[in-house]
Amino acid sequence: MNMEKCKYLLFCGTLALWMAGSFQQVYAATEPSSQAIQQQSNKVTGKVSDATGPIIGASVVEKGTANGTITDLDGNFSLNVKAGATLVVSYVGYKSEEVKAGRGPLNITLKEDAKALDEVVVTALGIKRERKALGYGIDEVKGEALTKAKETNLINSMAGRVPGLVVSQTAGGPSGSTRVILRGSTEMTGNNQPLYVVDGVPLDNTNFGSAGTNGGFDLGDGISSINADDVENMSVLKGPAASALYGSRASHGVILITTKRANKDKISVEYNGTLTFDTQLAKWDEVQQIYGMGSNGTYSYDAISNTNKSWGPKADGSNMLKYFDGVERPFLIVPDNTSNFFRTGITATNSAIIGVNSGKTGIRFTYTDMRNKDIVPQTHMSRDIFNLRANTSAGKVDLDFSVNYTREDVKNRPALGDSKSNIGKNLMTLATTYDQEWLQTYQTADGEYSNWNGMDPYNVNPYWDIYKNFNKSKKDLFRMNGKAVWNIDPHLKLQATLGAELNWFTFDDYKAPTTPGFEAGRLQNSAFRNRMYNFEVLALYNNHWGDFDFNATLGGNVYKVNNQTTVTTAQDMKIRDVPSLTSFNEISVVPGSYRKQINSVYGAVNVGWKHMLYLDATLRGDQSSTLPTGNNMYVYPSFSGSFVFSELTKLGDLLPYGKVRMSWAQVGSDTDPYQLGLVYTKSKYAYPGYTIGYIDNGTIPNKDLKPTKTNSVEMGLELKFLKNRIGLDFTYYSQISKNQIMGMASSWTTGYNYRLINAGKIENKGIEIALSTRPIQTRDFSWDINLNFSKNSNKVKELDGESDMFELEKASWLDVQVAAKVGENFGSIVGPDFQRNEKGDILIDPQTGLPQYDKSNHVLGNASWDWTGGLLTNFTYKNLSLVAVFDVKVGADLYSMSARAAYESGKSPETLAGRPPVHAQEKKMVCGRIAERSR
C-alpha cells in the first residue's frame, strides 16, 4: 500500500467519524423524543468545573433516566428535564455530584476522587482511559516514585516495581546503558527491548557501542537523557494487545512516559538535589591466602613472569623477592590487595524548575545538572539537561510544544568483557603477594610502557590505562515535540503530532605509543549523526447513547530514520605529545549509513455497556522499507474485552471492584535495512587506470523476506477488597513468535558465512501476580506493602529444520557460547562437559589423573530467570516517607569469565585442593597443572 492510499483511507475514516457525530447531533435536534417534548418548558443550563477550570466532556444525566448530555469546550451544558428532577454529574477521576435542577444556571464544582484517579491510566497513543475498561494488563508508576532515590538512568528506578519487567544494568558504570526485557525474548536476533514513547513521540534508544566477544565499551543509551523530575507517570504496556497500535516497533512492548506541565493558575519555583555515594561492590575477598605469586609451585626472582599467577609456593615471608618495580620485599600475602586502587564515587544531581500558568497558557522549564566522579580514578561524567514544555489554548485549538537538549561528556568509560584494558579483570587476577600500589611504576624514565606481566604482556597495567591511555565521548541530543488538537465539538477532535530527534555523538579511544598491541600508538574516532522523525495524525471520536459508551480512533503515522556513521582510525603516531588525528602518519576512514522508513495506518473501536462490559478492537497496517516489495505491507489486528462483575454483585466494601479480562493480538516486525541486495565496497588498493571493488556482504541477501509475526493470548483477574486496601492482579499470557528473521550458518562453498531466512519459532508463556496492601491506616500514619511475582517460560520451539542450535554470542575465544537450542529455554549456555558414567560421576583418565572431557556441545545452564519479583514498602507519617524497593531475580545461570580467571590464576579458594605442604618435594597434578612441591 503506497502513501496515497494511506492518505485516502485516513481521509475517508476521518470523514466517517465526522458524519457519525454530525448525524447523531442532527438526529437529536430534529427527532426529539416524546419525553423531551414534554420537558421543553423546563430547560436547565449550567457549567461544570473543577478547582482549575471548566471540565470538557463531563456527563450530566437526569437521575433514573437515560436522558443526558455532556459539557462543551467551556464546561457548559443544556438539558431539558422534568420539573424537580435531580441531575447526576460525573467525570472520570472525580467524585460524582447530585444536584437539584433549578430555574437559574447551575455552577457545579467536582472534586477529585483519589481512588478514582488511581483507576485512570495512560494507554496507547497517549489516550487516558479507565483501567476497568481495558481488556489487557497495564502497569503505571507515578513520577514522584522515581524521584525518591534518583538513578543516573531513569529506567533503573523501575526495577522491582512492575511484574514481568526485568531491568539489567551493565558494568559500564553510571554512564552505561540499561537493558529492559518485558515477558522474555520474542526474537532470536535484535535487542528485544521495548519501545519508549515520550509525550506521544517514540524515543531513539540506540546504544552506539556495547561489549562484544572481545570486549568493548558501553556507550550509553537514549533513555538516560530523560530527567526524573520531568516525569508525570510511566505506563508499561507489556502485551501485544496493549501495544498493537504502535506497530512493529512495539513488538517487544511499550513504555509510555508522560512529562509534567506547569501547574494551573500559579507561578512555581522548585529545587531538587540528591547526593549519592558509590563504593566498590566486588572486593574479591574470597581468595586463597596461602600461596603466592609463581607457577608450578615456584617463582622467578625477577617477579615479572608471574604477576597474575598465584601458583607459587607458600608465602610465609622466609624469602625475599625482587618485584616488578625493582624493589626487594618479603614473600608475604598482601590482604585485600586491590581495593585501594578504587575510590569512593560521588554523584551530585541538582534540578531547578520554574513553572508559570495563566489558566490557558502554561510554561515549565527545567534545568538539571549531574556530576559524577566514578570509583575508578580519572573517570568522570557530566550531564546537563534542559527541558522546556509550553501549552496554550486558543478557542477550539490546543497547542503543546516541548524541546529537550542534553549535553553529556564522559571521560574514561570502563573497558568491558575480555578487553586487555579491562581494569577489573587485570586487578582481580593480581597475585596474592602483590600490592596494586606497586603498579604505579607503570612507565620507564623515557615515558615508555614498563612490562609488568611476562605471562600475558597484552593485559595492560591499570595505571597506564588511566594516566596514559584515555577514551572520551561527547553527546549533543535535541528532542522536539509539537502537538495541535482541534476540538471540533465535544465528541470529535483532530490531533497532529510532529516529533524530531537529532543526536550527535562522538567517541575517541586513544592508545599511547608502546601500549601492548598498539606499540606505534592509535587514535580511533567514531562519529554518529542520528536523525529520527515521527509524524502522526489522529481523529478521535467519543459519545454515549443510553447505556452505551463509544470511542473510535483513526490515524496514520510516518516514521523515518537517517543515521550516518564515520569511523576514523589513525595509526603510527609521529607527534607523541599531541593525541590528535594530525599527529599520525596513517589514517583510514570507514563511513556507514542506516536509513529506514515505516508508513502506517491504524484504527481502534471501543464500546462499553453500563460501565461493566467493554469490547475493544484495533487494526494496524505497516509498510516497511526494509522488506521486499511483495512483503513490505503487513496488517495485524487485536481484540480485547473486560467484564466488571462487581457492578452486578454489589458487595460494597468487601469487594468494591472485580474484573475479568481477555485479549488476543497479533503484531508484526521487520528487520534492519540493506538485507535485500548486494553491498559493494571500494578497495583501498588501486590498479593503474582501474577502481578495485568487492562485494562486502557476509550474508546471502533474501529478496523474499517476510515479517516476523507474534500471536498472543492474555487473560487476567483484578480484585480489590476491604475498601480497596487490598488489591490483586493476576495475569496469564501465552505468545508465539514465528517467521524469525535469522542469519543461519552457510556452507563455505557459497562464498558467504550466513544466509538470511525466515525460520524459527519462540514461545513465551507465564504468569504475573501483583499484590497491593495497606495493612495500617490512621490519621497521620500509613504503611503500604506491594508485592509482585512473575514466571516466564521462554522456549525455542523450532529453528530452520536442519539444525537444533543457533549461536547468539560466544564467550571470547572459548568453546562456550550462549545459544538458542530447540526444546530449551532461550539463552542456553552450551559447551563441552565432563564425561560421566551412568551414575553421573566424572570419569578420570587413569594415565594423567585428569577428568575426561566430551568436546561436543552440551547444555551447561540457561540465562533465563526461573522467576522474578519485587517488594516495595512505604511508611508515611504526615509529610515524611520512608521507601524501600527490592528487586529479585532467581534461577538464571551465567558463564563467569571472572570465576574462570580466578581459577586459572590460582586465586580461587577451590584451587587449594591438592596443593603441597611446605616440606614435600614431589609432583602432583592440580587442576590440570603440574605443581612442583619442595620437601
UniProtKB/TrEMBL annotation:
InterPro entries hit by this protein: Beta-barrel_TonB, Beta-barrel_TonB_sf, CarboxyPept-like_regulatory, Plug_dom, Plug_dom_sf, TonB-dep_OMP_SusC/RagA, TonB-dep_OMP_SusC/RagA_CS, TonB-dep_rcpt-like
Signal peptide: 1-28
Xref: Gene3D superfamilies: Carboxypeptidase-like, regulatory domain, TonB-dependent receptor, beta-barrel domain, TonB-dependent receptor, plug domain
A GO CC term assigned to this protein in UniProt: cell outer membrane
Domain TonB-dependent receptor-like beta-barrel: 440-790
Pfam families in alphabetical order: CarbopepD_reg_2, Plug, TonB_dep_Rec_b-barrel
Compartments where located: Cell outer membrane
Membrane topology summary: Multi-pass membrane protein
Domain TonB-dependent receptor plug positions: 138-254
Keyword terms, alphabetized: Cell outer membrane, Membrane, Receptor, Signal, TonB box, Transmembrane, Transmembrane beta strand, Transport
NCBIfam families per record: OMP_RagA_SusC, SusC_RagA_signa
Similarity comment: family membership: Belongs to the TonB-dependent receptor family.
Protein name per UniProt: TonB-dependent receptor
Species in which this protein is naturally found: Bacteroides xylanisolvens SD CC 1b
